[in-house]
Amino acid sequence: MRPSNPPTSAATPSGPDSSPGSDNLLVVEGLQTYIGQFHILQGLSLAVPRGAVTVLLGRNGAGKTTTLKTITGLTPPKEGRVTFDGQDLTGQATYHIARHGIGYVPEDRGIFRELTVEENLLLAARAENRASYRRHLANCLDLFPDMQRFLRQKAGTLSGGQQQMVAISRGLMTDNKLLLIDEPSKGLAPIVIKAVMDALQKLKSQITILLVEQNFTMASTIGDYFYLIDDGHNITGGPMERLIADTELTRQYLGVGFA
Amino acid sequence: MKVASTPRQTAILRDPRLLTLLGVLAGLILLWIYLNTAITFPTFVRFFINGLVESSVLFLMASGLSLIFGLMDVVNFAHGAIFTWGGFAFIWAFNLFTTTAAEAKDKTSPLAWMQMGLGPLPATALALLVGLAVGALLGAIIEILAIRRLYGRPVFQILLTLGLVLVLDESMRLVFSLNSPSYDLQSSPWPSGNFRLGPDISVNWKSVAIVVTGLVVFIGVFWLLNRSKVGLVIRGGVEDNQMVQALGYNVKRYFFGVFALGSALAALGGVAFTITSNGGSQGMGQLNLLTAFVVVVIGGLGSFSGAAVGALLVGMITPFIGYHFSTIADSFVMILLVLVLLVRPQGLFGGKKY
Predict the structure, then answer these.
(1) Which residue from A72, A123, A192 is facing B236, i.e. has the nearest CB?
(2) Is A119 in contact with B248 (Cβ distance < 8 A)?
């Protein structure tokens, strides 16, 4: 699509993985992903450190959602590698990748509207084991106590915030190691965004998270590390404090003025 | 984060399933009162039983169509051909199984071992398995070779399955070495004998068996869809198959299973049909397919219980209409379709899945 890429596209990911002694759960190298004729990811690389929240930032159309979809195998990459927990997942089927322990909370939540909330969670639990189901459900209800009230309700009748709780809970119904969350704040009222943010804060101790988020307040509050991408390749990355301090960068790529 | 609480009582009162059931019951009672003045009670019961048998055969066919067309949105015109194939495979196997080795014309045939001279009941049971296996196998082959690539592309599905109808129709003449379009059972698949309900009323055991089969299939598939994990994956997959994959399920395999199951049910319908009419003809599948499509649409696309109610509605009323107004009996199904769609364009249970 573009005549030439800026030199940054070829650069190795600068960020969490370059920090000494870091332990990366997910490493993505040089992804090239096409959707139809469009070249969406153009050499994207990133590393997600274990036990932290890594935020993927960039303006609309930068390739954030495609990055998550490429990791889950929904839009397989033409080139590049996805390594998860030491295993090469590149080119594997989506259901296989999921079974390695990657949960996915898509943009617009992707809940099953015709199923009840309980059925949504039961489906996500995969195993027939009742005890494990109860344990995971208890954990989710601990995180979202409100959910108890609409467990039996059809998921399609829920509000956006309630659906988001269900979508995140679905990712927690198995012993997933990594949760990919795509814009959890999208289309939600500010007070609901606050609730989702609180839940993600609590989640940080349980699971590694790769978060796509446009809401800068949310991203900067929850995130430990960040990656800034544009036109399908890396611009920069590093500890979140660096991004917060760099007002020039946030203004240029995120349209956020801080001063 | 307030939850909009659903008022449960009113929801049940507004449940279209319950209302329809009440409506059907009321209609039947009115019909009975009317007909009671015209026909005797034993005649009424006979019609009623005939209606149940017809409904069951129709339901067996429509149930498969409800899964494939209603739930998975695959327009499958070959469903009728699979119905005929299932019925013919049953006849073929039944005729072989009931032939004794002494009667066999060609003793060197590789199928000679099948000529066991079985009685009608064991031969029916075995031949039924053959019919089901042929249906499931045909469905499996069609899914793997063709439908798998065509999910969500209805125009291609129509073109392809219409072509398949021609292939399957012609090839069955070859496979079953038919000289004419009809194919008969060489003996009755069921021992004669009746089940007495009263002094003037007796019911053929064959009819009882077919109605029970329909009931068992309904309960079985309903349970599979609504109460089992497999059903959950299928219902989820129909709604958002990418998300189900992202949850770790191989959705393709489940869809394949549904298609094979739906095809086996079509074959079962074919078997039931050949048993009721002591044989079959090549056109029986396509003839019943039209009615089955109507049944699925009347019941509401995607609703399995809707297909059952639709089959009952069409199957029960047709014999009575045929008795009183024989001239419009054939067009009655279409009149019913128009009436239902006028009142509920989405079908009786449409919009409400499963």
Answers:
(1) A123
(2) no
Distances, alpha carbon B79 to alpha carbons B91, B222, B326, in Å: 19, 20, 29
Beta strand A53-57 with A225-230 is parallel
CA-angle at A64, arms to A227 and B1, nearest 5°: 100
Q: Which two tokens stand for residue B290?
A: 């039209």
Return the structure tokens found at A70: 């490429």
Domain for residue A259, yes or no?
A: no
Both A147 and A233 in one domain: the answer is no
Structure tokens at B136: 């499931």
pLDDT of residue B36: 61
Residue with tokens 């549904």: B258
Domain identity same for A94 and A20:
yes
Percentage of chain B beyond pLDDT 90 is 45
- Please give the tally of structural domains in chain A: 2
Sequence-distant (6+) residues with CB within 8 A of B198 are: B42
CB-nearest to A114 from B243, B249, B353 is B353
Amino acid at B84: T
> Bigger pLDDT: B194 or A185?
A185
How does the average pLDDT of chain B come out, rounded? 85
Residues A181 and A136 in one domain: no
Q: Give the C-alpha separation, B188 to B94, whole Å.
A: 10
Are A20 and A125 found together in one domain? no
pLDDT of B193 reads 73
The answer to whether position A4 is within a domain reads no
B243 contacts A106? CB cut-off 8 A: yes
What's the N-to-C CA distance of chain B in angstroms? 30
Confirm whether A93 is domain-assigned. Answer: yes
List CB contacts of B14: < 8 A, sequence separation 6 or more. Answer: none
A186 and A88 in a common domain: yes
d(CA B235, CA B230): 9
| Domain membership flag for residue A5 | no
What is the arithmetic mean of pLDDT over A79-90? 93
* Domain end position, chosen among A170, A204, A223: A170
When CB atoms are compared, the residue of B1, B4, B236 closest to A195 is B1
Q: Which two tokens stand for residue B55?
A: 């409904």
Residues of B within an 8 Å Cβ radius of A = 1-4, 6, 229, 232-233, 235-236, 239-240, 242-251, 353-354
A257 burial (CB, 10 Å; 0-12 / 13-18 / 19+) is exposed
For A152, the domain range is: 108-170
Q: Is A76 at the interface with chain B, CB within 8 A?
A: no
Place of tokens 């599979």: B224
Top pLDDT among B350 and B53 is at B53
Which residue from B219, B309, B221 is spatially nearest to B265, judged by alpha carbons?
B221
> Domain end: A150, A170, A190, which one?
A170
pLDDT band at A15 (very low <50, low <70, confident <90, very high): very low
Asked whether residue A211 falls in the same domain as residue A152, the answer is no
**pTM over the 0.95 mark:** no
Same domain membership, residue A61 and residue A80: yes
CATH code, domain carrying A77: 3.40.50.300
The pLDDT tens digits of the residues spanning B331-348 come to 888 888 888 888 888 888
Are A133 and A232 within one domain?
Answer: no
Q: Is residue A203 classed as helix, strand or coil in its secondary structure?
A: helix
Average pLDDT, chain A: 87
Over residues B161-179, the pLDDT tens digits come to: 999 999 999 999 889 888 8
Average pLDDT over residues A12-27: 60
